[in-house]
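Hi L.,

You mentioned the student needs an example of a multi-chain input paired with its predicted structure. This one should do, with 1145 residues in total across all chains.
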Amino acid sequence: MLPDARYHIIHETRYRYASQVSISRQLLHLTPRDCPWQTCLEHHIELDPGPIPGLDESRNDCFGNPVRQFALESPHDTLMVRAESRVELRPRPLPAERPLAGSPAWERVRDMLDYGARPVRLDACRYLFESPYVCLKREFARYAKPCFPPGCSLLEGAQALMARIFREFRFDPKATSVATPVLQVLEEKRGVCQDFAHLMLSCLRSIGLSARYVSGYLLTRPPPGKPRMIGVDASHAWVSVFCPGEDEAAGWIDFDPTNNLLPDTQHITLAWGRDFGDVSPLRGVILGGDTHAPEVAVTVTPDEEPAAA
Amino acid sequence: MPRTLLTNYPRQTDRFDEMLDDAGRLRPSWRVFFDHLDNAAPKEMRHQLDYVRRRILENGVTYNVYADPKGADRPWELDPLPMILSRDEWKDISGAVTQRARLFNALLGDLYGEQRLLCDGSIPPALVYGHNGFLWPCQGIRPPDDVWLHLYAADLARSPDGRWWVIADRTQSPSGAGYALENRSIVSRLFPERFRELGVLRLAPFFAALQESLAHWAPKDDDAANPQIVLLTPGPYNETYFEHAYLARYLGYPLVEGQDLTVRDNRVYLKTLTGLKRVHAILRRLDDDFCDPLELRGDSALGIPGLLQAVRAGTVLVANALGSGLLQSAALPGFLPGVCEKLLGETLSMPSVGTWWCGEKAALDFVAGHLDRLVIKGAFPSQRLEPVFGSELEGAAREEMIGRLRAHPHAYVAQELVRFSQSPSWSAPHERRLLPRGVVLRVYVAATPHGYRVMPGGLTRVSSATDVRFISMQRGGSSKDAWVLSGEPVSAFSLIKPTIGKADFVHGGSNLSSRVVENLFWFGRYAERCEDMARLLRVVLTRLVDADAEDELALLSACETGRALKLLPTLTARKPTRREIQNQLLAAMCEMEQSDGLQGGIRRLLWAGAQVRERFSLDNWHALNRLQRQLQTYAKARPALGEALAFIDQMLLAASALAGFAMDDMTRDDGWRFLIIGRRVERLVFLSKAIGQFLRLESARHPGCLEWLLELADSIITYRSRYMAQPELPPTIDLIVFDEANPHAVIFQVYNLIRYVARLERGLEGIPGDADDGLRAALTRLRTFERNHDFATGGDCLELAALLDELAETSASLSDRLAMRYFTHVGDVRRQTLAA
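Structure written out for the whole complex:
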């Protein structure tokens, strides 16, 4: 079992507009949420131009994620949002204590989630259907089917699907944008972590399973002997599959199709929802400005290293 | 007297007849009204029908213009014969519909709150989590007093056995109540004696109750006695915009669009000419998912960023509550009886039409087996699926449909076929005949602090003769007033105040929204721009028609000036032939692609005008529309020269009618002032540039050239009457630059602009009056020049040209300064940003 881990994270987003923005409103999913394996120890958000009163007020969205928002009502041509967090992670119970093969057959889970005028697991039902970035289509069901042969256990099937995506898709930041439809990702077989997460969600939901989108960070290892570079990381995304245990207790198992592994103490969770749209770290509406893409810099430093400035 | 109206009335025994019972006798509630009809002289009826037609035409025309300037418009149809309901029958209907409103309100409370009905399986999660109308960010928001539905409507139909069924629910922002009002105001005047004698219940108290309720639940300001309530519309391109405008006027609420509102410090404000005004309640006709691009649909250009947070903070009431569109699902009715027991502990009083949601295995199998008796519909309104009649599917088509149902069962609903009851309609082509037509009754309910209250009456929609399966205004159906008989005299309550005291007098409009003002300003500018362009084209085209070789110079110089002003295309050949000039000019005039041409000018003029449609007369509007249509035909088939000239004359005529209307018929409020300022700014820019260019021409002193310059400045008649000689440069310049009395002189524009801008700033408190500084300085320089120069040399010409260039720039910057200060920046793009 892995030891507990502590991290220091800086997530900096910078907009440089070609023309002035007169009003900007932003919704922030930049605060790591607490969960059984993760505690947010410290958190702070800084703005430029700033400060803005009320920014420290946080509420929970309908998925239980902490969310903040602000409005900048004076003209500006740059905007910088810097979130700084310290989190502690504990190892998750999987896979040592509950091997994947021991999970229920995927058809059983599918049938359990289907409507039958009986009490349902509400938290699982929320992630069964289409959402703006996730599509339910025959194409996705067809892609998932070889990974889910009849009687296959749910988690083995999910692992096989994750492995298939990892094998067959190329990581290519130039191939897609946030607006690329997931069907196009399936056709072109390339994209980034958000695309792979949306793809895997589309496959799982198209065969009647429940799965959610997780937004967060991943600890990267600098090349041996080299110091950690500041800001080279990016935000990360993976999926979490609903898997009921014998006692019907809560069961969500994470899968990272970009890296073909089961997230543990190196995946820091920010928020989860139906897809990127529910939890995008910075979602805003501006008046004026332009469509210029922001510069995003993320630095994740383990506690044993000196924290990045 | 023989009952001739009945002898010709074809009854269908497989439907319920609203007027006749099974034995073919008049129902008691119809007797009085029918006797009146039957005894009316044909001439009297004809008069009354003409009255309806006239009234409908007046409003119908308005409706057309509002609905779709591109031409796919539909007139509103009204059948003069009301749908008549007895008092007892109404009691049942009103009890059932009120119960349904209570049920839906409680249902919304659960679905946006604890979701116990989802947990226990009473409602399939697919109908909520799989429904675009479920607004996730609205979960957990509780409206004041837990009232989600402030206005609800149910569509009711009567089956052959006489029972009423609910066939559709409107929980988003029910439309049609305004049309019901409009129908009532016409029909009650058509049969005033019957209306009184039968004691038809009035509609006005219902709307008064709605007003009171909104005021009751609107958050209270410390100082303001009356909450400010607005009606939010998606805008003039919405098909029911006429109704929005009508209701707003009737209820006394400002009609606003999303961009008229702004959120500051979690409060909603209306952007008016005099600054931001707090808004306490929004009666919305905009679909809820469009209401806040920050948290809801990010691609919405119609909403108000930050609205949801203001709602959370409780600083604004939104009616209906955001998220209430969720219940507009064809799949829901099947689950209502159980939900009604659970939430209200009551039996559902009025059934919904038989509905099977295919997401349930048993239902899907039933539907597949009984397809020919059913209609297939989409489970969610966002699917925009046309209903498919199972009986019309055969062989492969039928199998394909069943395959679709099995592939996406959640997305489909099957409904029983409804045979609507029939009610008599007046036959238009026949002299005296009643025709049976299918009817659906839309009944409205409003929340009040004392419970839900029904509008006694409603909007009756009538099927067209050709397709009785559908009842839809979009498919050529008609409408009726609905009369609920009390059998006794009723109060003559009306929302229109009986007397208006001195304190109620309204002058000007302090609530003029910035958007309205901005559109008026641009309307003024575009109107003038079209006129200038038309005049320039006329100058050149007339010289093409009848100029001899001597006037070649005038023709070429006019072309050159037009080109320098970027109003005419650059001539391709160095020494173009007349034919080449003509072709290029006509192309510039007619082609759609020429965004700076006359075509583009008229298009923009109509666009700006459409935003402030209610301020202009119909005649103006028709004239402009005709011109645009004419121009569109020219784009396909180039007109001959003479035809083009005739068109330009018409164009100038319409423009002067518009100008005349502005001067003679519009109220002198700040909106009007902006319109006139727009006109003056545009004319000043045009004249300064044109005269400046002219003065640089080598041929500036040539009489033929001066003549066209005078025509361009619409001053040729004045010149001739003053000098009765060939034009010369100094008097020409005096007339079109320095003559304060000439409305087409440069200096006239400057004086008037200074005057109107000063007046504007005086009226609008707290705004520093420096917008016209540049103009005052320019005026001084012009006057100095006038005193010291006599155009003896070419140097004078160039000096004045430079002065005029400066003036053109000053007026353009005045336009910018006014925009910065007063406008909403309609052109400013609002966009969504996402960062990972």
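You could point out the following to them. The two ends of chain A are 31 Å apart (CA to CA). Chain A has two domains: 5-89+280-302, 100-278.

Best wishes,
N.
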